[in-house]
Design a protein that fits this description.
237 residues, mainly alpha, disordered N terminus, 2 strands, globular, 7 helices
Length: 237
Amino acid sequence: MPDSTPQGRRDPASRLPLELAIVFAVQMAVVFTLVRIDEAISLAGTLHAAVGLVFVFLPVVVLDRRGKPYARYGLRFSPREAPRDLIWFAGAAAICFVPIAFAAPPFWEAAFDLPTLEWSFAWPRGYPEVALSHLLVVAVPEEFFYRGYVMGRLDDIFPGRIYLLGARVGVSLPLQAALFAIGHFLIDLNPARLAVFFPALAFGWLRARRGTIAAGVLFHAASNVFMDLLTTGYGFR
C-alpha cells in the first residue's frame, strides 16, 4: 500500500519471519502473565486495558524502528473513507449476523439436548459500558495487532495474491486467523476459543478489501456485542 513518508524501509524478507515470531511470542508471554496475575491478586478490572496496551505497544515499537510504515499495514483512518467503512461494516454484519441468529438456536438445542429455545431482549450485566469496551479495549487493540501488524507482516513474507470476493488476499488471511485463534486458546487452554478463527477470516477479508482496519474494528466490536445479546437473550448468561 503506498504511503509517502510512512512507507519506511523494506526489511530483507529473511528477517521478517523471525521478527514476527518474536513479537507474537512476547505478546503471548506478557498477556499470559497478566492473566495469571489477575487470577492471583486481581487487577481490579484493568486486565483488558493492560492487554490492549500490549497489543498496540509492540507493533508501534517495531514499526517505529522500521520507518513508521503504519499506512502500509492498514493502521490509518481517513474521515473521507469513513462512510464507505460504515457501509462495508453494515454489509458484513447483515450477511453474517442474520444467518447466525437463525442457525444458533437449533444448533444449541441439538448440541446440548435443550428444549426449544426462545429469545427475549435483555441487556447483559454492565451494558452499555461493556459494549463501549468491546470497541475501545478489545476490537481496536486486537485489530491493530492481528489485522494490522500481523497480517501486514505476513503479506510482506508471502507476497502472492488471489482475488476473493473482490479483495486481493494471500495466505496471510488464514494464517492471521490461525494465530488469532491460537492466541485466544493459549490464554486458558479452552478448545472452544479456537472458534474465533472463523470471524477472524471476516475481519481479515475486510482489512484486505478496505486497505485499513477501520471496518474490521467496527465489525469486530459489533460481533462481540451481537453474541452477548444473543446468548443473554437465550438465557446462557
